[in-house]
């Protein structure tokens, strides 16, 4: 756990984000044990440093680190938009990590989507096979993303990866 000034994004004026940090490492043992016992853990994006001080962590970035530590095949991020769009506003059902990076670089991806996409890119680099950014406002969004060919959001894949859902 490392302290991070500003939490990776500007807070609205007058809002105290408290102690904001970033993930230095994840010990997946507890989550793996719960999974082996058929429990589905709910994990709050809060972490402690070596001294026991607690920090708030960006939930998207935290989820990506946990997925990487668990060697997850897929990471699903729920949001309140359809998915990633290109510069012309066209929805992108699949985007490569290189294209996603370019869309951040040219300002097409901005605001709250930046941490989600950066999380996706880091998770892919760390071994997660695919990351899905889906619209949580859609009824049964997770089921539709997992069990239909079309899905309901954008899947982000590494270079040379199979773009099939």
Structure description:
The chain has 165 residues and is of the alpha/beta class. It contains five helices and eight strands. Strands 5-7-8-6 form a four-stranded mixed sheet, sandwiched between helices. Strands 1-2 form a two-stranded antiparallel ribbon. It has a two-stranded antiparallel ribbon with strand order 3-4. A hairpin with a 5-residue loop joins strand 3 (46-48) and strand 4. It is globular. Residues 3-8 have low confidence and may be disordered.
Categorize the overall geometry: globular
- Report the mean per-residue pLDDT as an integer: 87
Q: How many E strands?
A: 8
Order of helices and strands: EEHEEHEEHHEHE
CATH-assigned homologous superfamily of the largest domain: Acetylglutamate kinase-like
Which range does the strand content fall in?
15-25%
Biggest sheet strand order reads 5-7-8-6
Spans of at least 5 consecutive residues whose pLDDT stays below 50 are: 3-8
Helicity, in percent? 25-40%
Gross CATH architecture of the largest domain: 3-Layer(aba) Sandwich
CATH-derived topology of the largest domain: Carbamate kinase
How many domains make up the 3D coordinates?
2
How do the helices and strands line up, and which of them pair or pack?
Blueprint: E1 2-3, E2 21-22, H1 29-36, E3 46-48, E4 54-56, H2 59-69, E5 74-79, E6 94-96, H3 97-105, H4 113-125, E7 130-135, H5 141-147, E8 153-157
Parallel strand pairs: 5-7, 6-8
Antiparallel strand pairs: 1-2, 3-4, 7-8
Helix pairs in contact: 2-4, 3-4
């Amino acid at each position: 756990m490392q302290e991070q000034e500003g939490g990776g994004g500007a807070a609205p004026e007058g809002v105290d984000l408290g102690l904001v940090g970033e993930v230095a490492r994840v010990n997946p043992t507890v989550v793996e044990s719960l999974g082996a016992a058929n429990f589905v853990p709910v994990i709050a994006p809060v972490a402690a440093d070596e001294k026991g001080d607690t920090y708030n962590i960006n939930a998207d970035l935290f989820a990506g680190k946990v997925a990487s530590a668990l060697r997850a095949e897929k990471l699903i991020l729920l949001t309140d938009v359809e998915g990633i769009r290109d510069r012309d506003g066209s929805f992108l059902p699949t985007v490569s990590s290189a294209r996603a990076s370019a869309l951040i670089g040219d300002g097409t991806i901005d605001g709250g989507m930046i941490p989600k996409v950066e999380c996706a890119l880091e998770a892919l680099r760390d071994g997660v096979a695919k990351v899905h950014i889906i619209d949580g406002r859609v009824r049964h969004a997770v089921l539709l993303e997992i069990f239909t060919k079309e899905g309901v959001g954008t899947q982000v894949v590494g270079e040379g990866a199979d773009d099939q859902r």
